[in-house]
Amino acid sequence: MRHFLTLKDFTRDELQEMIDLAIRIKAQTKAGEYVPYLKNQTLAMIFEKSSTRTRVSFETGIYQLGGTGLFLSSRDIQLGRGEPMKDTARVISRMVDMVMIRTFEQSKLEEFARYSRVPVINGLTDSYHPVQLMTDYLTMLEFGKENPVVAYVGDGNNMAHSWLYLAAIMGFELRVATPEGYECDPEVVAEAKKLAERYGRTLILGHDPKEAVKEADVVTTDTWVSMGQEEEKEQRVKDFAGFMVDKDLMALAKDDAIFLHCLPAYRGYEVSEAVFEEHAEEIFTEAENRLHAQKGIMVWLDQHRFDDAEIEN
Ligand code: CP
Ligand code: NVA
């Protein structure tokens, strides 16, 4: 069985298969054709953090595929009162067909997956947000960015880490600019660089947003204060001075560059109101694509639920 815990657990061909499924299912959905790929299946969705997009897209997605979604906030289930993750996994995975989890440490997600009888999907952890990046890849393709130069400006967080793996495996140029002290996790960088070598691309990491954005095809950023970091807000806002994606910074990118944001967006911090509104079509297509990309991932995992092959990546 295969789980979807990080992008580095998959080859380029496998990620491409998921994207191809997403493209096909999106076209079918847009034509009003709801193919029940996951008929009668139940997806449990465990949330230890807030969500708008992840919840709505997974719940709607499983429904459109012929199944049912179960929203399980950790405030309401015994997990929130201290029932161990491994027991929660052994109970829930005997009753449902697939599980999505949004939690804090990646190790908690991995523990759940170890004890689960069904495929587990990462719906965001402190370390990664892989379903978002599959969505962003699909969105770039739709906007004609086939072999893009992507600039990520901001925090070296879960989004940045997943961008590193996506670029390394799919083979496009990624330039990451973070403030000093907010760099990506060195272990993730080392892993991503190894993958990039195998797949033939370079990853560029630095501290200068202008250098990163120059002639880029895609510019992206994320909140400076991720969920769980609320108390650091004041310090972070000071430390991220000069990292807002505003008109002056966007002007350095290619004329037809797109701007992506996983949302929620904080105007006046990581992005200016003007840049956000000018690129609203791309941003909200990206948000909608959560629905389609995740359907591709769920159907792929269902098709591989009896695989025991561990891939070498
Ligand atoms: N981008 C994203 O994951 O949004 P939510 O936190 O609303 O799910
Ligand atoms: N880095 C953000 C992403 C939100 C979708 C967070 O973890 O809160």
TrEMBL record:
Pfam families xref list: OTCace, OTCace_N
Keywords per UniProt: Cytoplasm, Transferase
Main location: cytoplasm
Biological process according to GO: citrulline biosynthetic process; L-arginine biosynthetic process via ornithine
Entries under InterPro entries matching the protein: Asp/Orn_carbamoyltranf_P-bd (IPR006132), Asp/Orn_carbamoylTrfase (IPR006130), Asp/Orn_carbamoylTrfase_sf (IPR036901), Asp_carbamoyltransf_Asp/Orn-bd (IPR006131), Orn/put_carbamltrans (IPR002292), OTCase_ArgI (IPR024904)
SUPFAM superfamilies: Aspartate/ornithine carbamoyltransferase
Organism superkingdom: Bacteria
One of the record's GO cellular component terms: cytoplasm
Organism encoding this protein: Nitratifractor salsuginis (strain DSM 16511 / JCM 12458 / E9I37-1)
Name of the protein described by the UniProt record: Ornithine carbamoyltransferase
Entry similarity comment: Belongs to the aspartate/ornithine carbamoyltransferase superfamily. OTCase family.
NCBIfam families registered for this protein in UniProt: orni_carb_tr, PRK00779.1
Pathway: Amino-acid biosynthesis; L-arginine biosynthesis; L-arginine from L-ornithine and carbamoyl phosphate: step 1/3
Domain Aspartate/ornithine carbamoyltransferase Asp/Orn-binding: 150-301
Sequence positions that bind carbamoyl phosphate: S51, T52, R53, T54, Q78, R102, H129, P130, V131, Q132, C262, L263, R290
Domain Aspartate/ornithine carbamoyltransferase carbamoyl-P binding: 2-142
Reaction equations catalysed: carbamoyl phosphate + L-ornithine = L-citrulline + phosphate + H(+)
EC number: 2.1.3.3
